[in-house]
Amino acid sequence: MTAVSLKGLWGRKLRTALTALAIVLGVSMISGTYVLTDTITAAFTNIVDHSFQNSDAVISGKVAFKNDNSDTAETPAFPASVLVKVRQLPDVAAASGEVGGEAQLIGRDGKVISTGGGGSIASSVDPPNDAGFNPLKLAQGRWPVGARQIAIDKHTADTKQFAVGDTIGVATDQGARRFEITGIATYAESSSIGSATIAIFDIPTAQKLFSKVGKLDGIQLAAKDGVAPEKLVSEIRPLLPPTAKVKTSAAETQEAVDDVNSSLGMIQKFLLGFAGIALFVGAFVIANTLSITIAQRVREFATLRTIGGSRRQVLRAVMLEAFVVGAAASIVG
Q1: Which own/partner contact pairs does 230-239 have at CB distance under 8 Å and 24+ positions apart?
Q2: Does residue 68 have a pLDDT over 50?
Q3: Which of 103, 100, 89, 88 minimizes the C-alpha distance to 60?
Q4: pTM higher than 0.85
Q5: Alpha-carbon gap, residue 133 to 116, rounded angstroms
Q6: 73 pLDDT exceeds 60?
Q7: CA-CA 20 to 30 A from 286: which of 87, 168, 292, 310?
Q8: DSSP 3-state of 34
Q9: Is 13 or 94 the better-scoring residue by pLDDT?
């Protein structure tokens, strides 16, 4: 009966292939959804881990309230004087400030370099004081110093054929300007963050470009040996203005990952909904196909009964055909 089942499948190649295709599409949509969302989560977690891997505490802007009509609110910068205060704490081994924003790089053709939705990231560097906090690593040249210098990510430099010593246009809310490229940087060991572009300035330049003179977006701190991150956080908290907050780097990392998981959870449910519909429709297609197949094979089954096959054996042969198609198509999907 097993041989009869397999020959039945082989004798109906097109119908078997179309039935299997319905299963492949549904399963691949579900597995693809999980692979996509898990890959994005893993990539973002890796980025966040690199961002705070050498720090024990992180100071960031604090949102006073959120707009009722929006799930998000712009995080404010806080006074740069906070950095001076925390550096004076006895348990702080090192502290470095940072300023970020959005800056679009302009290619040689005079057009903004497309990021494909990856973002146009702008960041700052403070080489004498970063104490290894900055995940950006120089691949070529040196870090920018002064109002006319910039470093860019290696991926953009390679794909758009920019090198140290070239000039590149940068567009911000204050308009477009040209900067000399003094360095090519990677993010940790990666040449890029997906399709995003990265523009890197020194802190004073970044503060001017993004209208944050005298302000910072964040501070990373390292505790002295033997000082717990929680203890460092408790010492820093009284020094902060209402527009700033402090957390351990582990808590900051977890919060960022949780935010991404929350956003991706909605996307995942949306995609799984379509995949579920595909499987649901596919199930009807498969059931209908098997019903037609069985109806067309009444004489074949009658012959099997005539030569000694039992009702259970005939049923088992049909079930085996369905199992083989379902298992093989699921594996492919």
Answers
A1: 231/91, 232/56, 232/57, 232/89, 232/91, 232/92, 233/57, 235/89, 235/91, 236/57, 236/59, 236/86, 236/89, 239/82, 239/85, 239/86, 239/89
A2: no
A3: 100
A4: no
A5: 28
A6: no
A7: 310
A8: helix
A9: 94
